[in-house]
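Minutes, project huddle
Topic: does the predicted pose make sense with protoporphyrin IX containing FE bound?
PN asked that the exact inputs be recorded in the minutes so nobody has to dig through chat later. Recorded below.
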Amino acid sequence: MSFYSGHHLGGTPGLLPKPYYWWEAGALMGSLIDYWYYTGDTRWNDVAQEGLLFQVGPNNDYMPPNQTMTEGNDDQGFWGMAVMSAAENNFPDPPHGKPGWLALAQAVFNTQAARWEKQDCGGGLRWQIFPWNNGYNYKNSISQACFFNIAARLARYTGNQSYAAWAERTWDWMVATHLLDLKTYYIYDGMHVENCSNITPYQWTYNAGAFLMGAAAMYNISDAHAATWRERIDGLLNGSLIFFTGDDKNIMTEVACEPVNLCDLDQQSFKAYLARWMAATTKWAPWTYDRVKPLLAASAVAATSTCTGGDNGRMCGLKWNTRKWDGTTGVGQQMAAMEAVLANTIRHSRSPVTDWDGGTSVGDPGAGGADVGRKNRVFPTVSAAEKAGAHTLLDLYSSRFASCGTTHYTIALGRWLLMTNEAENIKTILGTNMDDWPIDGPRLLSTLPVLGPDSIFTSNGEAWHRARAMLKPSFVRDQVADLQCFDRHIKNLLAAVPAADGVTFDIQALLFDMAMDSSTDFLLGHSTSLLTQASPEAQQFVRDFEYAGRESAKKARLGPLLYHLPHRKLRDAVRGLREYVRFYLKRAIAEKEEAGGSNKARDRRRNYVFLDELLKQSPPEDYTVDQILSVLIAGRDTTATAMAAVFYFLARDPAAVEKLREEISGVGVENPTWEQLKHMKYLNNVIKEALRLFSPVATNSRTSNKETILPRGGGKDGSQPILIPKGTPVRWSSHELHRNKDVFGPDPDEFRPERWDSDLRVRPLSWEYIPFSGGPRICLGQQFALTQIAYTLFRFFKTFRAIEARGSGPFLLRTNLTISFPYGCLSTFRNLA
Ligand code: HEM
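Predicted holo structure (tokens), as shared on screen:
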């Protein structure tokens, strides 16, 4: 429970901290119920009850609005199975006025039964609930397994035959599709609806476990079909032996990922459920006890022999076969070891109850309410506290600039900080006297843990010159103008936008995925494919990337003193990130060697790969990893938020969309060239204007390395030069700079792309408009980003007629290294026809 913070001040009940997904918290609540059931110890009951009730959502069916952007049937199913256990074991009932455990399980069942869908693959549940989510076109066994498990147990608890009929239907469909192979009783991962016979062949412990327990419930209530279900239970037990390895083939193992060290965070917990459900099976199918118990006993002994790790020397590992701690820790490892041990005492535990046999849980056969059959999204409402927190930093800067002048001192993290908004000062810092103003302070601290001191993003002086000289040739125009790489990912993006006219979805989330897919493709020659089917390693990489970014930013805010406190999880995430990049680096080196030192082998398949280009200079391995990660950090979130900003403003300005579409149709092609994009005046004005109002790098800083002078901020009215002591951090805000009325006219807060045509007072705008910074350290990826944004817009408005804003929230920004919309960018598109 040291991983769980939902019961602490400021935590959210029923949520595990990121990067754990919501479903695993539901599985953890199930483990807390098991802990009480087996041991009688009530110490975690309140925590479990609070978590289970906090996450029910407005319709009491485990579809809380803040999870529905990613919620799958299996995610909802895990919460459903946890409350089913609560009902069966008479876990203390919820207080008066709250739904009963049984009613909650019925709500999950009702919403899922309404999603059974015959048109594709003849039935079954899709993995994802909502059409805009990745995985909506996938039908996976765990979604069916959860549904089957809940239906069978509801049939047993309530005696209602219609639940049993759904369980039968699910079983038959699994067999008909060969996801469940009746010869071996192996259960395979799933299939895409475009080709229902092309099965993804991975096998997971939790599929076997969920079907096994469901089949035992069916056996328990069957008279006429008892023999059939008994045969199925025996078959499933035989099939599940594949998960027991070691000399005596009796140690539970996640065979698809454990031996190759590729179990992601989700998969690290799966063994918990096989142990849990194998034990439960013995209550309803008692003859299985003699087969199950030796497996559970051997696995528990092996599991506990790994529990010597972590800071307290008691954390359990993942690979039980090693019989010693394998260096990994996590919620999954802890749950799995605990369930394996507890399961051994099943014989001494009570039998699950039913409605007529001691069960006290209150049901509601019609539960699920308005969510039954719903496929569109209910969006989170933004609370007053969240509103207050989200925009404060930039607002604070604005009000300080208004009240204290355009250059003023303030205190941040206990240190004096000079804030400036003067273009002349920014020019001096980034341009004229750049050598006096290295990157240091929070700007450096927020990237140092990930990139180390030698990357282009963290180095200064000679080291920076070396890194820039190495990277610059890879950004020459020919490469940037190659639109093939973007095109692949924009097609995936267009396919991921909900096909039905007018469905609300979060375009920002898709743009972040696309930016990661295209950046990794361009840099490594291998895309993360988040918009299509990301591999477990790619998913882990992205989780590590986001975790490392978030935690480094937090660390930087602690200030230099606390900065050096050890942070093991961050260190692990950084190691994961670097290993991922290193893998592709080694592959590129090997391919180059195979091709006799040239890049020809790869060049035939792809137009351009950044990594291949870098290798021409034969740089050291670690150094190359530093630079690749720098470019990824510099380019991914910035480009994604810039695109989200463009869509944000267009969704509120139909006239601009109309004008843009006119210009696009004037070009007369489907796939424009780089030159064609560059000549589209209005399109480029739209992008410039969005970057003005919503600069992804909204603020930035440098620190003086000697006593020096800035041209503005001194004297009575601040218009004179000012002496700057050595070691003074200076921060500027492009967010504020870009709203200067003297430069941008009297309406600086308005989105008005036309302003770039005629009525700007100052030209050129070199230091008044700096979304890509300026001077020798100006953004290296500027052309790359602008081209990608322009191409995306072009292709979007070739496909869609209009975009409309959804969600009534105010304009909120979250400020980190880059800024973003904390509540997404909710939109709906209108098709052309
Ligand atoms: C709209 C998108 C983007 C914006 C607004 C943006 C903005 C910026 C800014 C403000 C800086 C200066 C940071 C500092 O000096 O502290 C910067 C640096 C940098 N950017 Fe970008 N960027 C974008 C996209 C990209 C892309 C797509 C790439 C690469 C693929 C990239 C690569 C870099 C690199 C390598 C640097 C460091 C340059 C140096 O220190 O010499 N950027 N960017």
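Observations noted during the meeting:
- The longest strand covers residues 708-714.
- Confidence is low (pLDDT under 50) at residues 377-383.
No decisions taken; revisit at the next huddle.
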